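[Meeting: bench + compute handoff]

Bench side (C.D.) handed over the final construct sequence. Compute side (W.E.) agreed to return the predicted structure before the next meeting so the bench team could plan truncations. Sequence as handed over:
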Amino acid sequence: MAETSKIVILGGGVVGCSIAYYLSREGVKSTIIEREGIGSQASGYSVGGLNPLEGSHIPGQLAPLAIESYRMHADLWEWLKEETRICFQGRVTEMVTLAFSEAEIPGLFKSLEYFENASSDGFSGCWMDAKELLNLEPRLSSKLIGGALLRGNRALDSFEFTRALADAAGKRGVAFRHGLVETFKTDGNRVYRVILGDGEIDCEQVVLAAGPWSGQLVRCLNLDLPVEPLKGELLRMKLPGLRLPCDFIGDGFSIYAKPDGLVWCGTTEEWQGFDRKPSDSARASILKGAMRILPDIAKAELIKHTACLRPMTTDAMPVIGRAPGWDNVFLATGAGRKGILLSTGMGKSITDLLTARTTEISIEHCSPERYG
């Protein structure tokens, strides 16, 4: 006999758990199906940075959803920590975007403008010359000519945040089911059963939030969703001496200062299919880039080398909304490097669509209908 669930969510990453969490706040129970474990993919390995002011299509079409999601994080954190007692290290951060050449300076002043214009949300920035940079962190490269100190971004431990969402949802009756989705049973333009390798679940609505694997699942519904895995690798390192005062970004690489004293260096972006194995070439590339920013990285101890697959669409915009041609199937994927940031907005908007068929969250540029 098939199991039953009002809403089935495919994927136990940060987006799937966010959807389950926001549904639970509306009193709606759901079932998350995850084949490996909560936060076991990109959601568990992300740097966890929340920058709503810059990125692909920011400024641009994604900017309204990005800042709305950022504000939702700010509103959520204290309550979520209080309910779950899970410390996901939510904090406001500072970062310095660095210039090695005069050609890079105009872009940094543009970043300063973005941050200064968002002062109402707590953002600010200032220019630092080479001497000021070395006063801030003497181990920085002597080849730097300046940088933009940017304040107001937030950061968290992405795995613990995902776990907190799942824990809070579970306290309200959300079920978690280990399993591998094989296909669906349909009646007209509705899915009424999800077929797993070891069972079946009858449902009223289905949400596909399976990251880069979403593209494979929708083929069972005769849909073509151009979301592919973008491989990213990071090095977690123990730097000798004092802790870094903030994050540093330059020349295409980043060094993130973590609360536990480690630094995370990265990141790479490669189209390698579903290969999740850390590579020697990526490690060498990251080390070379990080040492250009902070030469003492050469003395750091490598603690862990990770790789994950981010869901990326062909137009670098997330996919949020009802699946074309289906009455009760919804898509929530494709956030790329902004998945942790956008998880709140994606979770709330999908919840609204499932329960009220409309949402005030700015997802108008994220509709699956744009793919035909």
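W.E. noted at the follow-up: Helices lie at 14-25, 63-84, 105-117, 130-136, 158-171, 214-218, 280-293, 339-356. C.D. will use this when planning the next construct.
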